[in-house]
């Protein structure tokens, strides 16, 4: 199975075309010189504009520039827009200038990069999770540049991009040349994106085996080996740290013929899609994989599935589909495309979503070009530039129609053009019209989705006999002539889909489309993000879960009560359900609890008390850090040495044999005490606590926490040191309490 070039597919009117156009405007609103500034600074060249703020000047400097190359490349391939091409060529020429200035093949925007990389080259390595030598995910960062340069060459044929990335790859090989395998694996404990995939791509481009050997060498074995053994060790891991590694495993396995690695990638995909993904295709809570048997944390959180995760799960699904020629991978790809990816951009005002909460009556935040430089902005500008990638695919001679999206296909090599006219999901049909230079015989394969009912295919109005089953292709073989029309008709129905943990929370799904209810437009604090570090989180008022709409009665009645209003709208008592991808700038409810009439009052009373207890502790909290979680730690300027992090008993932790430090805020001096809570074996005799460089005394202690006075400090620089070099107890959470 092979993909068509993006140049061969064009979107026509519909929600995907509209999303592409909104993305195009956002891409053009970004200033290339501001994105290039970190690279110029690192190369010692004068900048032409100030670098962007937000994540682009607190450690991830340059990462959006790499994504920008990918987005420009794919948007140019998808649209032919000349301004996009001009920008892409300019970006490449400036990066070449930076690389030439450095002289050894390196180019990057990482702060103090030369000092940092020199330490790595010498084997001075201290890292875990998200900090490598107290630098924020530097290999993840430079992977974005590798990927952007490779995309520029693959999608547009830019030879200068190829030259730059080969030099950069050779620099990286020299960087790690003196390191042992153990030292390399130590580096890979820190999030590193899909750097192994990039070296596999370099092998594809050059056919030089040193790149494939490097790709294998920089694949993290501690993560790979359990997957090979079919062991589920994912719970508690930072989700988007893992998915790109698996894309690399899959690509390397395809190039090397390593079946173990291929099986590992398939095991991971199956685990995530079947056990860890919610109805709209997303996964994770606060960026981490939650327990497969308990989604309650996700239901309560304002940090639901992350868009980057779905971006990478789509990439993995595409790779597996093309490699295995298995149409079932498209079922997940399609579900996620319509419900998460399409919904992750404001279709009218532009802006990308980081977290999509499934907490009832919460909402999402949208990025802005001048304020928001998050990872999900980087993947966001890519997501909506490449919708044409899997609408169609092909073998040597035959065409496969995979998705019902209005578009045109021009397979110049074979002299075949195809136009697809459809209003799906608003109408359950699609029309395919062939335009051929000459009549010719080939197989036209049309995907029969697993959700489609009463699936029918007509050729020039004549119904065809179908013996295929859902999740297969209907293969039509004949001598086709220009003007032939193939019509596909089907039915969809609405069903309830439980969360993977089997709890009593359900979503309404019609065909592949997740339905939700718009519930309110009040208290949408920070709806369009400011430049703050955590501006991507919807921090507005929580509506208690016991105030959410619930389904009461016999389960069979929930769907039967739906009244079809047409145009994918459904009436459910006082609510109106509609496709989730249509709901924007509003609070919404996607998941509903189900109750029998007999247990409704009892269960609601219990839920109400749980909400009171949870909201009470948050009301007393001025600031908090979940130790061992990336976002809260980076937000609080984490630094440390000889520190490890992990996940035990559904809680995160961090310890140290040297020190860890954070910066916290005690706004208006509302906080009176600082509380540090611990997991597991608890001891305090081997640690010291400093606030603003002065040692502080414990004022209270219980079996799992210690407290300190902070009522005179508005800015708190907190440092926790091991007294004697032994490992401290596991810190779980730090709170400033009123």
Show the helix and strand layout:
Blueprint: E1 2-3, E2 9-11, H1 15-29, H2 32-43, H3 63-79, H4 82-102, H5 113-121, E3 127-128, E4 131-132, E5 135-136, H6 138-156, H7 159-176, H8 181-187, H9 195-206, H10 209-217, H11 221-228, H12 239-256, H13 259-275, H14 296-300, H15 307-324, H16 328-341, H17 375-383, E6 392-394, E7 399-401, E8 407-411, E9 416-422, E10 429-436, E11 440-448, E12 453-459, E13 462-463, E14 472-480, E15 485-491, E16 494-498, E17 505-510, E18 513-520, E19 550-552, H18 555-560, E20 563-566, E21 569-572, E22 575-579, E23 587-589, E24 591-595, H19 600-620, E25 621-626, H20 630-635, E26 639-648, E27 651-665, E28 673-679, E29 687-691, E30 694-695, E31 700-701, E32 705-709, E33 715-722, E34 730-737
Parallel strand pairs: 7-11, 19-24
Antiparallel strand pairs: 1-6, 2-8, 3-4, 4-5, 6-7, 8-9, 9-10, 10-15, 11-14, 12-13, 12-15, 16-17, 17-18, 17-24, 18-22, 18-23, 20-21, 21-22, 25-34, 26-27, 27-33, 28-32, 28-34, 29-30, 29-33, 31-32
Q: What can you tell me about this protein's structure?
A:
By secondary structure, the chain is an alpha+beta fold. Among the domains are: 31-218, no CATH class; 393-422 and 429-491, Golgi alpha-mannosidase II (Immunoglobulin-like), CATH 2.60.40; 494-598, no CATH class; 622-737, Sandwich (Jelly Rolls), CATH 2.60.120.260. The protein has 20 helices and 34 strands. Strands 16, 17, 18, 19, 20, 21, 22, 23 and 24 form a nine-stranded mixed β-sheet that branches. Strands 2-8-9-10-15-12-13 form a seven-stranded antiparallel β-sheet, with no helix packed on it. It has a five-stranded mixed β-sheet with strand order 1-6-7-11-14, with no helix packed on it. A hairpin with a 2-residue loop joins β29 (687-691) and β30. The model has no long low-confidence stretch (mean pLDDT 96).
